[in-house]
Design a protein that fits this description.
heterodimer; A: 304 residues; alpha/beta; Rossmann fold; 8-stranded mixed β-sheet; 10 strands; 16% strand; B: 381 residues; 17 helices
């Protein structure tokens, strides 16, 4: 299974907001790029973050190179709708008549999750149809899924849509997306979580839901993981070591209480979630940039 | 914070996901109950944790009172009452439709429409809209002195107050009515919506979605006919209530730069609507171990260990690990302090409460009460 994750066409990072999905997307992309793969990170969140990790200005809706072999793009509904609409309708004027009028706003909101559909459609196109000189342009597309509703809502839009609409070009493409999202050879859906109660519980729910919908089972990244540094005896001695050791004792105690939480939730997750669990160590960095991403890429790149 | 609870009847806790909004909301409702009020915490968090920490098996769309024996277990004697409930998105929508429908038949037609079922639960902003709707309903029932709302983790702060009007705008969009015109007319004349989409725009849209969807949409719009006005009026009343002096908005955040950024966005969005932030709560702030003073370099720690007759062993040695850990914890405290100061400077004049990171998760009323003491003692300044 070595490198299996990075050998997929599409890797989806899901999880609650604030768990570090963007960080891990960037680190995975860097690990893959360093292995010679041409990687595109698609951010579908409200504000893009990946370019910033590499010290670059936001990519916006145009694909930009951030590092050798590593690119990113911010997928936004309006622009995705336009690109996608034009692919199907082909005539700009006709597109404008149909979509750039006040009714389109209604339509975009009323057609079940059309915004999500066109955004997912763009990601799917890059992963499965974006050709360059006779071969696929990207070796790997990483989708940093939206945090709201765990990103599950985002991945199930084709399913929901097809329940309501069975005909037309959109329905046809939805089936294409669905089959890519169901193919374990080509796609992997990962979960990112933290060793804290709510994120851990949500990861368990998310795991169940993803499995129920048949998404290919990727690893579970347990981010910001604290490892124990002191034996219980050492901790007991130091915390009772008098005023001279008060600061060091409290620091050690804080650290161990977080390490205990990490160990606890790691145990809970290992018991309930049948996925490869990869702890990602907490980084005590004063600023979060390329250096931090490289550290994480080094840690996970070795395991994957 | 007592001030905020005393002067308002609705407290909305807003902020991004995972910052401890639910816990803060419960702590505020507890505080109000302890002070003699009938307080309700209305949560949108489906996790059973809140229910469990309140001594309930689960929370539903009905208000449930927290048992006195559960307070006794935590060593608390409330002078008032604490109630809790969880927002059920679908049934809140259904209730609203039933209240607003002109006849039971109209309600039936809407509730049974497939598109309604998808739209009510899946439309962006739906949860925000219904949370507000529920607060309005509970407030108007006058059953509680104070309602504390734990709001949805909105990714876009603006969705919050505008969710209702945005959704209603979608439901009653004149432009779309014109586009769908031919199909609407066909429906009215009893053609059972079999008409094929006509008109350039309609035909183009149909190329995307198929005409079956457009037929569903037409049926949905026809079912809603005549109800928009009632919906709009009520949404305006809800908005007016939230902007009135009876309501207060409390920003909840953690010390993480990303969530602080979100909190600032919320603050600006509220300001743009002419609403003042009543207070800001920063959860999980790392305390600085250096406040104790004492040795802070490897040699001095080694010396202190010797003095305390603790063996400096292991690999790396205990003194080195202690030094590293002290440095790391100090870094975390510095980062948190920097963020809290940034927030304080930006929100000048808004009372700011910082709640230290607890060693364990909050699991019971005693835990909420501990937070309450931080919400009063650290004082708004």
């Amino acid at each position: 299974m070595s490198d299996a994750l990075l050998d997929r066409r599409l890797v989806v990072m899901t999880g609650k907001g604030g768990t570090g999905k963007s960080t891990l997307s960037a680190a995975l992309a860097l690990a893959a790029a360093r292995k010679g793969k041409k990687v595109l990170v698609c951010e579908v969140v409200a504000r893009e973050r990946v370019a910033d990790f590499f010290g670059r200005p936001p990519s916006g809706t145009q694909i930009k190179e951030l590092q050798p072999n590593l690119y990113s793009v911010h997928v936004r509904p309006r622009e995705a709708m336009r690109e996608y609409g034009l692919m199907i309708i082909r005539f700009e004027t006709l597109y404008k008549i149909a979509f750039e009028n006040p009714a389109a706003r209604y339509f975009l909101a009323a057609a079940p999750s059309l915004a999500e559909i066109v955004m997912l459609g763009k990601v799917w196109w890059h992963a499965a149809h974006d050709m360059e000189r006779g071969r696929l342009r990207w070796d790997l597309v990483i989708l940093d899924a939206p945090a709201t509703g765990h990103g599950l809502t985002f991945l199930t839009v084709p399913e929901v849509f097809l329940r309501l609409v069975q005909e037309g070009p959109l329905a046809r493409d939805m089936r294409g997306m669905q089959s890519l999202l169901a193919d374990p050879q080509k796609c992997s859906v990962c979960i990112v979580t933290l060793p804290e109660e709510m994120p851990a519980n949500e990861a368990i729910e998310l795991d169940r839901a993803l499995q129920k919908h048949g998404f290919p089972v990727g690893p579970l990244f347990l981010n910001a993981h604290f490892s124990s540094r002191f034996t219980p005896q050492e901790l007991a001695q130091v915390t009772r070591g008098g005023p001279l050791l008060a600061a060091a004792g409290e620091a050690a105690d804080n650290h161990e209480s977080r390490a205990a939480l990490s160990a606890h939730y790691e145990g809970v997750l290992r018991d309930t979630v049948r996925r490869k669990l990869l702890p990602v160590p907490f980084l005590f960095e004063r600023s979060f940039g390329l250096q931090a991403i490289e550290k994480i890429a080094g840690t996970i790149g070795g395991v994957l | 914070m007592k001030d905020v609870l005393d002067r308002h009847r609705i407290i909305c806790c807003v902020g991004s996901g995972g910052v401890g909004k639910t816990t803060t909301a419960a702590a505020l409702a507890l505080r109000a109950a302890m002070d003699g009020k009938r307080a309700l915490v209305l949560t949108i968090d489906p996790a059973r944790r809140l229910a469990n920490s309140l001594g309930l098996k689960e929370l539903g769309n009905e208000e449930t009172r927290i048992d006195a024996s559960h307070f006794a277990q935590a060593g608390l004697t409330p002078r008032g009452e604490m109630w809790a409930m969880m927002l059920d998105l679908k049934s809140t929508w259904d209730e609203l439709v039933k209240v607003q429908a002109k006849s039971p038949q109209q309600a039936e037609a809407i509730l049974g429409n497939q598109l309604y079922q998808t739209l009510s639960t899946a439309m962006a902003g739906s949860l925000e809209y219904m949370a507000m709707e529920k607060v309005y309903e509970v407030h108007n029932s006058r059953r509680f002195d104070v309602v504390v709302l734990d709001t949805p983790p909105t990714s876009n702060a603006l969705d919050f107050l505008h969710a209702a009007s945005r959704i209603l705008d979608v439901l009653d969009n004149n432009a779309m009515k014109i586009v769908l015109g031919p199909m609407l007319k066909a429906g009215k004349f009893g053609f059972k919506l079999l008409a094929a989409p006509s008109g350039l725009v309609l035909r183009t849209l149909a190329r995307f979605t198929g005409s079956a969807f457009l037929r569903d949409l037409t049926a949905f719009m026809m079912a809603f006919e005549g109800m928009y006005e009632g919906f709009k009026e009520r949404a305006l009343e809800v908005k007016a209530l939230l902007k009135s002096r009876e309501a207060a908005f409390v920003l909840v955040t953690s010390a993480n730069p990303l969530t602080i950024q979100e909190a600032l966005y919320f603050h600006q969005a509220l300001q743009a609507d002419g609403i003042a932030t009543a207070a800001v709560v920063v959860n999980r702030v790392q305390r600085d171990p250096r406040r104790h003073g004492g040795p802070d370099n490897p040699a001095a720690i080694e010396e202190a260990l010797r003095f305390a007759q603790i063996k400096d062993e292991g690999s790396p040695r205990l003194s080195e690990r202690l030094f590293q850990t002290l440095t790391d914890q100090a870094t975390l405290a510095d980062l948190d302090r920097r963020e809290v100061e940034r927030l304080r400077a930006t929100l000048r004049g808004v009372p700011l409460y910082s709640v230290p990171r607890l060693r364990k998760d909050v699991h019971d009323l005693a835990g909420f009460w501990q937070i309450d003491s931080d919400l009063t003692e650290t004082g708004g300044d």
